[in-house]
């Protein structure tokens, strides 16, 4: 049987108006210990994956409306490159934040990652996952770096830009119906060129640099803390001032943080959390309960506005959902 030389490529997208739908799990690039999507009117996650023919390394192009994932990766070095938005990674006692244009190298480890879009656009990133044994040899040549040399490091080397640009070219070509890289010998040729970029990237990365732990909460941390509070208290009568006080900031700062991390207000996110819980309760509660009772239990007080918003989102009235029981 001839050796495969093309790059294998696949792409999948999941979106749902009900984030408790767990169909997104088949798209995840790691087996998660914990995973949660940021509440949104329509939660979205798309992942395109390219598997390189010689090494088995994987290239992922990820787009997300916002999520948190905790996973333990024991077999790969991961290079994360946000294109739109920002991410925060916690590994051990270290915490690192990145924005578009920066990159992060992570050795095999357990870590917690939170991502958010920017200016109303979803989060977008490229992740390059390299098998650990690649550090010892590739085509019989030593890389000159041992995998134990790597900690979680922010990469500011001049090689970061060329590597990122080449990876973006790869995912762009592979997404095209006229792609050349998944046919014939072009895939193996592209992979050989990729490793040259990768060697330059590693050679110019300061692997002794220690991650900087920032003690002041970032905008993303504020947003996630606020979302955690809202999830715990969505049934209560809470205001933006209550949420801000719970996370130790002012209402204005909280509003600014939400706009910066996704162009949505705390009130809109709280409404989305309440709406997803209403729908879940309508689908699982005793049919003898009234829509008004269920909606008020989830924090809604104006039934007319609630019913209109529910129908706009789910395409049916709350009563129709309840009658499906």
Q: Keyphrases for this structure?
A:
elongated; about 325 residues; alpha+beta; 5-stranded antiparallel sheet; 12 strands; 9 helices; Arc Repressor Mutant, subunit A; Jelly Rolls
State the separation between the terminal residues, measured CA to CA.
55 Å
Number of helices: 9
Widest sheet: strand ordering? 1-3-4-11-6-9-12
Percent helix among the residues? 25-40%
Q: Based on DSSP secondary structure assignment, what is the total number of beta strands?
A: 12
- The overall pLDDT, averaged over residues, is 76
Give me the strand/helix succession.
Answer: EEEEEEEEEEEEHHHHHHHHH
Q: Any idea of the CATH topology of the largest domain?
A: Jelly Rolls
Largest sheet: 7 strands, antiparallel
Give your account of this protein's structure.
The chain has 325 residues and is α+β, with helices and mostly antiparallel strands. It folds into 2 domains: 8-203, Jelly Rolls, CATH 2.60.120; 219-323, Arc Repressor Mutant, subunit A, CATH 1.10.10.60. It has 9 helices and 12 strands. The strands form 2 sheets. It has a 7-stranded antiparallel β-sheet with strand order 1-3-4-11-6-9-12, with helices on one face. A 5-stranded antiparallel β-sheet has the order 2-5-10-7-8, with no helix packed on it. The N and C termini lie far apart (55 Å).
């Amino acid at each position: 049987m001839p050796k495969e030389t093309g790059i294998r490529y696949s792409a999948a997208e999941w979106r749902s108006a009900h984030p408790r739908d767990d169909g997104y799990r088949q798209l995840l690039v790691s087996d998660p210990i914990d995973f949660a999507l940021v509440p949104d009117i329509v939660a979205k996650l798309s992942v395109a994956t390219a598997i390189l023919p010689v090494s088995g390394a994987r290239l992922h192009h990820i787009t997300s409306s916002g999520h948190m994932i905790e996973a333990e990766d024991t077999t790969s070095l991961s290079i994360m490159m946000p294109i739109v938005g920002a991410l925060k990674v916690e590994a051990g006692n270290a915490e690192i934040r990145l924005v578009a244009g920066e990159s992060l190298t992570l050795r095999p480890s357990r870590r917690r990652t939170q991502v958010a879009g920017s200016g109303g656009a979803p989060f977008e990133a490229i992740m390059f996952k390299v098998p650990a044994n690649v550090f010892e040899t590739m085509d019989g040549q030593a890389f000159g770096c041992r995998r134990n040399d790597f900690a979680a490091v922010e990469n500011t080397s001049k090689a970061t830009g060329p590597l990122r640009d080449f990876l973006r070219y790869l995912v762009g070509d592979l997404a095209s119906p006229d792609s050349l890289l998944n046919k014939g010998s072009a895939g193996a040729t592209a992979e050989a060129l990729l490793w040259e970029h990768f060697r330059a990237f590693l050679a110019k990365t300061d692997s002794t640099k220690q991650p900087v732990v920032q003690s002041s909460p970032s905008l993303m941390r504020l947003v996630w803390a606020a979302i955690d509070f809202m999830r715990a208290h969505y049934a209560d009568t809470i205001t933006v001032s209550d949420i801000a006080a719970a996370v130790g900031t002012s209402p204005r700062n909280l509003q600014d943080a939400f706009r910066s991390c996704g162009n949505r207000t705390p009130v809109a996110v709280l409404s989305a959390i309440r709406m997803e819980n209403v729908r879940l309760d309508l689908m699982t509660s005793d049919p003898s309960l009234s829509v008004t009772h269920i909606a008020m239990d989830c924090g809604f007080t104006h039934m007319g506005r609630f019913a209109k918003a529910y129908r706009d989102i789910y395409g049916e009235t709350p009563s129709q959902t309840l009658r499906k029981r």
